[in-house]
Fold this protein.
Amino acid sequence: MSLSNLLKTKLTSLMARKLAVRPARLAGHRPVASISYDDFPKNAWTLGGPVMAKHGVRGTYYTAGGFCGRTVNGTVFYDETDLKDLAAAGHEIACHGFGHQPTPTLTTEELAQDAERNKEFLRPFLGGDAPVSFAFPYGRVSPRTKRFYAPRFASVRGVHPGINAGRVDLAQLNTVSLETRCWDKARIETEIQRTLHENGWLILYTHDVSDSPSPYGSTPEMLDWALTRVAAARIRVMPVCDALPVALGL
Ligand SMILES: [Zn+2]
């Protein structure tokens, strides 16, 4: 990316960040947490699933339909059987765009086509329903694309670091990374304690789960540690779609 494009991208995301498209005040009477996987690599289910089962929690899989059954740059992605199995186990199948493109690079017409394509792809795995939660691929947003997704989904997640508490933007929820590239136990523990004391909503996220994860993924032990700490704080873990009404105090 050229310097001028880089600056433009940074400025656009800064403007988008400042623009609250769906402002809300979280008025939960208790803290809540979610764990989510983006894209998603097959082992996020085959190795991440058992860790969640051990803790008795269900997660959210932000699924890009274009990755189904494929291996891209050495990453083996989920297939249709994985989607059936994780839905049967009560996990949430959420939307991450079909083509997994940075949304500001697509025209509004292309965004609509991509959203429709992923919705139709996911529908059979959702009992005929449409997905209700969305996460921006690469966390890339612009004011235009926030406005596009906000009315189409119950909640929209970005990758801006932090918990969600007090005044939030449901069109760009914050998240706390469990990725190897920024793994920091003290920071995660601080965010768990903040969630507890502010009755907030902690949304954890990662990609692959493996004993030798990519920089964007986690080991099963990292997931286990994070879920153990959340449980120690007595914070309930729910899929994003179920955590939203709890966080809003509904
Ligand atoms: Zn992604």
Summary: The first helix runs from residue 3 to 18. The pocket of zinc ion is lined by residues 38-39, 96, 100, 137 (CB under 6 Å). The chain has a mean pLDDT of 96.
